[in-house]
Amino acid sequence: xxxxxxxxxxxxxxxxxxxxxxxxxxxxxxxxxxxxxxxxxxxxxxxxxxxxxxxxxxxxxxxxxxxxxxxxxxxxxxxxxxxxxxxxxxxxxxxxxxxxxxxxxxxxxxxxxxxxxxxxxxxxxxxxxxxxxxxxxxxxxxxxxxxxxxxxxxxxxxxxxxxxxxxxxxxxxxxxxxxxxxxxxxxxxxxxxxxxxxxxxxxxxxxxxxxxxxxxxxxxxxxxxxxxxxxxxxxxxxxxxxxxxxxxxxxxxxxxxxxxxxxxxxxxxxxxxxxxxxxxxxxxxxxxxxxxxxxxxxxxxxxxxxxxxxxxxxxxxxxxxxxxxxxxxxxxxxxxxxxxxxxxxxxxxxxxxxxxxxxxxxxxxxxxxxxxxxxxxxxxxxxxxxxxxxxxxxxxxxxxxxxxxxxxxxxxxxxxxxxxxxxxxxxxxxxxxxxxxxxxxxxx
Length: 444
Fold this sequence. Notes:
Layout lengths: L6 E9 L2 E5 L9 E16 L14 E20 L6 E12 L8 E13 L4 E9 L19 E10 L7 E12 L5 E2 L5 E3 L10 E15 L2 E15 L8 E14 L4 E10 L9 E2 L18 H4 L2 E2 L7 E3 L24 E13 L2 E11 L4 H6 L8 E12 L7 E12 L1 H6 L6 E9 L2
């Protein structure tokens, strides 16, 4: 809206995993496991406008940045076996990966915590009981920053999985997650932009208590593959984004993806809904937001809207949708910002197809249509109205090459564009953004 929008970036991550374990692992988990995974990141960004790479305009148009993060550092103790089939209980403490559901909708991250987990019934039942205190992340690389004091942001989660329920080949999961946030200090990132509180509304420091209750399923019914997720979030925050008082949180999320294999072709249908807030000045917050989303859904690896951060001009340095996120949550960032339950929500429907042209080569196409659930919050944040609900059409294609027919070498080339609808055009006139991505993974 105010200048040139082209940007170019390059990122290189080098990770190494060091594992020491003790025990006979042929038929059972190890008795002890020690794992450390450091990651060295280099990234370069070049823009066409100042104050994009740094708040200080003297920093110019480019940024070179190197960072070392710690993505895993844990001890895993096998407590006991509880059956002849090696059903077990184990305890893990330290920085560890965790996902609250199959597709990363609510909380998928590598965080500092303690987790009790295990299996029953010949591995047909699995459970997790965990506590995490979230680490600060480097804003440019997205890696864990262990040099900073952990955030006052606690996550308590319990879930249980049942394989082959309700039918053979389908896994059901129930989850309860409680997020307690007490971040009461100003926070600026390494680029000198404010993160907490977000530069939106009253710009107050906020505290919130939110409980998520959800059901997730993944598997197949005969030839039909199905992934589904439903969450209800409730709780309160003090104060809210636009009013200086306590408000009650009540929000809903649902997603489903259907697919079927026809020889070498797999077509997909995707549906997703995140409720939006219809009045930013009342005592209810109906916008759904996650703790830390990393959705693998509706072509997320190539989708423009999911992969790229979409800014909200006029609301400070606040994103309409964060990078690697599907929710329109109006956060300062996914890495360091707080959850925001006063947001316009999201409605998405999509079609996609994966075609295995050869064992080494896959071609994928995705087309999603996107809508705001309610635009009232946007109209207040932008002091603009009316804003149409239709965001636009997200169209993408990717070519994935695995020369060894394994995950040791994976090369992906993709292109995506957002054909703006009336809602996006109202925010960013005469703009159909797009991007090209080349990504290569080498694992040894």
